[in-house]
Specification:
about 150 residues, mainly alpha
């Protein structure tokens, strides 16, 4: 089992900070790095959301008809479908893809179309789980009559 190391901010006299930088500047550098990481993550998230929306609209063109969740449900399925498509492609091939790539678009479209079809099957109005439970009625018990002839 490897030993645990404690990581601490370098002090001004350690010689680790170049040209006499102080702790305030070190904290500023950390905040800049954190802001850059957040900016890149937010940008990637917005790319996936925008791409998922476009793919959802195209999947809706492939599978026309009324969806149980409406347009917003289709868009959420599109975003989720593009993420699932990219993750499954990475799982089976080991190649990371981005939404705007040669593989990204067709894989996201196929995954979103499959998820939209499954979504329609599971939550159609006829087979909706809550509505099915509400419609379910217990059949009355029939009494058996015995006829005695004399």
């Amino acid at each position: 089992m490897p030993k645990k190391r404690k990581i601490a901010a370098p002090a001004a006299g350690d010689g680790l900070l170049a040209f006499g930088e102080d702790r305030a500047h070190y904290g500023s550098m950390l905040m800049d790095a954190a802001a850059e990481l957040f900016r890149n993550g937010a940008e990637l998230f917005l790319v996936w959301v925008g791409f998922g929306t476009i793919v959802a609209l195209l999947a809706k063109l492939i599978l026309p008809g009324k969806d149980p969740g409406g347009t917003m449900g289709s868009v959420l399925v599109g975003i989720f479908g593009s993420l699932v498509g990219a993750a499954s492609f990475y799982f089976f091939t080991g190649i990371k893809i981005t939404p705007v790539s040669v593989y990204g678009f067709p894989i996201a479209l196929i995954a979103t179309t499959l998820l939209l079809g499954i979504y329609r099957i599971l939550y159609s109005r006829a087979n909706h789980p809550i509505l099915t439970l509400m419609r379910w009625k217990r059949t009355p018990v029939r009494r058996r009559a015995t006829i005695v002839e004399e």
